[in-house]
Amino acid sequence: MWKWLNSYADPERSYKLAGTLLPWFVCLAIALIGVGTTWGLLFAPMDYQQGDSFRIIYIHVPAASMSMAAYMGMATASFIGIVWQIKAADWAAASIAPIGAVITFIALFTGAAWGKPMWGTWWVWDARLTSELVLLFLYLGVIALYASFEDKVLAARAAGILAIVGVVNIPIIKYSVDWWSSLHQPATIKITEKSTMTGDMLYPLIINIFGFGMMIGAITLVRFRAEVLARNGMRPWVRALATQEVSK
Amino acid sequence: MQFESINDFLNMGGYAFYVWLAYGVTFTSLTMLIILSARRKRKVLTEIASKMAREEKLKESRGNKL
């Protein structure tokens, strides 16, 4: 099995595999986000306390939960890259970082736009918001480290170590609302017990969470393919693609 | 359907500014990310092609000297 798995670490194979997977991710992302957002904006019942302002939840929660999931994905890829010296994993981690940064920014921004009408303030320095801001800086740090070395093997190692160390921040974000008192409400979706939200509100939210996941997957594949090409500029198959692209 | 009319929908129960601000910024930043990501492949390949052209030129001029 190890040998079979290793063959996918070959740049050309992983490039082609990413190309095969891409349309599936794109279609699923468009369908899920389309359904989830329309349902959430138009058909979900109004919240009895927050009115229609709660409709921000359909982008805020998917962005926030996926900002953490993407971070775990990036850190896992970095770990694989560092431990088993698989370069394709390093390229995957480098592809996720900018996407994660944008998703984290969206989580913070939509949170602020929701906080203003509900809490009366755009921002408070409490544990949940601050740790999510730290997550944004971790993503930016990984991007900056990867960009600042000419030698990308070294760059991936430096960025990877930061990514792995930064994992400690993830449980802090997740449990911050339980550990410290906060303006931020606790989780409404519960996996082990009944969610504290009615189905009509909950289903579009879950659909959008999966949709955001698929979208992040799709953009990761797009960036991964470009990264594979950039790191393998000396290989004949990449050079053939380059010649094709210019003659187009 | 939770809203009586399009105006009602756009008004978002009085929270129009915050709701549409959140959705607008999300949409804009995601669109920018997707466009920039989609353009990368072409940019990388063009760079590689111009590097190949440079190498080719270098090889030629070296050949002339000999």
How would you sum up this structure, described in words?
The complex is a heterodimer of chains A (248) and B (66). Chain A has helices spanning 2-6, 11-43, 57-84, 87-119, 127-147, 152-165, 169-179, 199-231, 236-247. Chain A is an all-alpha fold. Chain A starts with a helix and ends with a helix. The model of chain A has no long low-confidence stretch (mean pLDDT 91). Chain B is mostly helical. Chain B has helices at 6-11, 16-65. The longest helix of chain B is centred in the middle third of the chain and has 50 residues, at 16-65. The A-B interface holds A 41-46, 51-53, 55-56, 59-60, 63, 98-99, 102, 105-106, 109-110, 113-114, 116-117, 215, 219, 222-223, 225-226, 229-230, 233, 238-239, 241-243, 245-246 and B 1-3, 9, 12-15, 18-19, 21-23, 25-26, 29-30, 33-34, 37-38, 40-49, 51-52.
How many strands of chain A? 0
How many angstroms does the end-to-end distance of chain B come to? Answer: 81 Å
Low-confidence stretches of chain A: none
User: Quaternary state, please?
Assistant: heterodimer
- Indicate the proportion of strand residues of chain B: under 5%
Major pleated sheet of chain B? none
The separation of the N and C termini of chain A measures: 40 Å
Outline the biggest β-sheet of chain A: none
What is the global morphology of chain A?
globular
- Secondary-structure element pattern of chain A, one letter each: HHHHHHHHH
Low-confidence stretches of chain B: none
Question: What is the gyration radius of chain A calculated from CA atoms?
Answer: 20 Å
Range of helix content of chain A: over 70%
Structural class of chain B: mainly alpha
> Mean of the pLDDT scores of chain A?
91
β-strand percent of chain A reads: under 5%
